[in-house]
User: Fold this.
Amino acid sequence: MKVLIGNSISKGLRTGLTKSFPKKQQVRASIGRFPSTEAFAEILDDVRGEAITIIQSIAATKNQTANDYAVQLLLLIDTLKEYGAGPIWVIEPFAGYGRQDKTRKGHHDSIACKSHARQLKNAGAVGFSTIEMHSERGLNFHREQFGDANVFNLDPTALLLKTLDIQDPSHVSVGGPDGSSDPRALKISKATGASMFHTEKHRDVLETEITHFDGDVAGQTADILDDMIDRGSTTFDCGEYLDARKAKAIEAASTHMIGSENSLEKLLTRRRADGRKRLFSRLIFSDTIDQEEEINRLNFQYPGAARRIKIFTTADLLAQHIKNDITNHPSMRPEPR
Assistant:
């Protein structure tokens, strides 16, 4: 089996993956946009009969939109099949449209997560994997297309736990910006002995409000754990709540850093209520979404800012998944030439 590392993959993740899959195991491709902004994909190797795993996150970077990367992924699958490739498995480290998994009451909204899963299947994919999908509903849309045995949702908790590096759990409290984060926080609490705080929020379109809080964080390092940070509104709300309750230090950790509307910069620069310290002493996230260019810009604009950012790599998690779960999967048997 061979791997095709897509154009949305961060430099750090790409470097890690190439250590596990040398050039002879990779499929080369030219992927991008024409000056007219139309997407294109060109396969540069003979792929006839080859089983191939494509790795492509569907999230905006400085150069392209999430929609660009989604269309390019579909073109990659279709083009590989056009030129004789065997079975194709898709890994989206950050899953496309995962939050568009339902319609609002009284509305007729697009359910883009469901549409995207169907498009992957129709293009020719036989399986789908991601890291910490936003909802079970989103996973079920993919299971409807590929079957239960052909959908994997990888758990990054061990990687997050190692990166948090909690040395003295008696002075640490973990929780999330809303109740959906409790299972994640509970795993970390059980593994380390850290206490927990609990938050409930109300969301109205783009605005959020904390409606309930339990926990004693005074004098503690409070770790906010979430699956993703986008505009950062819920993270800010939770951080300010913890600040008001006299947390000694506040850290924000997520698997996926989307970083819309310059939220990474805002997270780095927001100050605590007393104006003396930064609200967040540390930001932790993975390399599922390419933030390298933004971090370089912020480090130039705010010298030393990058020291408060800790990125954990998912390269080994993905490589082991490919080797252990996908390579010998019944759906990935190479086709005879």
Notes: Residues 157-312 form a domain with the Rossmann fold fold (CATH 3.40.50.2020). The CA atoms of residues 63 and 240 lie 32 Å apart.
